[in-house]
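Give me structure tokens for this 296-residue protein.
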Amino acid sequence: MEPRVLIVSPVRNEAAHIERVARALAAQELRPARWIVVEDASTDGTLELLHSLSPDIPFMEVTEAEAASPHAGARDRLARAAPPRNFNFGLAGVDWRRYTHILKLDGDIELPPHYLRVLLERFAAEPRLGLAGGVLVEPMPGGEVRRLVIPRHHVHGALKCYSRECFESIGGVQERLAWDTIDETYARMRGFDTISFEDLVSVHHRRWGSADGVIRGRVRLGECAYITHYPPSWVALRSVKLACSRPYAQSGLAYLFGYIRAAALRTVRVEDSAYRRFTRRELRRRMMRGAIAARG
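Here you go.
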């Protein structure tokens, strides 16, 4: 079957980047079948720019998020699950089962021309592959770039591509904090592989944490760890590792604070006991592999 890619992009205040994103999609060697851009109450002219671009990109559709959305304009939209909510809003208006793959693409990610072609070739070659994406680099002052380092089994929330079968099996994307960990955990539970391909490099034009603040982002990650049943031992090790990244010490403390605060507030966690058991088993295996590698 010939691949048919449906892309949904939740965007807010991306006027500085969205034209690059649009031109990169128009230049893809394998063009998407449809690109739905869900604009969420931008204040920088993003909506007007999108409308000016759409006549030149036939597969592009621009829609506006629900006016009554409590997330529109909120300071920390990620913590309030605005991106997955708007992603689902975009999906609700189409029959996504008519497409072979569904891609969530943020409005600040510039894909290389071969990205979709190569990614879909990987899906075709690996039947168990259910969720995949590439890696990201960010422009830095002085013309340098910084690579965002993630585990191979994790896929950036900014550019997740699901096979239709995987997306249906996991029940889609949950509208909650930690959605981009929950989805891939369920994918592996259902027998699918989740992979980030290091040779597929895209540019993230808005530096990680710049929208809502790095410290707020670390607190949010700590809360995600609680929601997804990461044990305290894992969180303690992770906070030590994060303490070695900028802002030094504060990053680790913010992560630990987010976890402890979520526990104190009894934040609702993933309710599925099978999910909890699967997550704990995965983390134990990773810690054992890490210990073996350290002994060398």
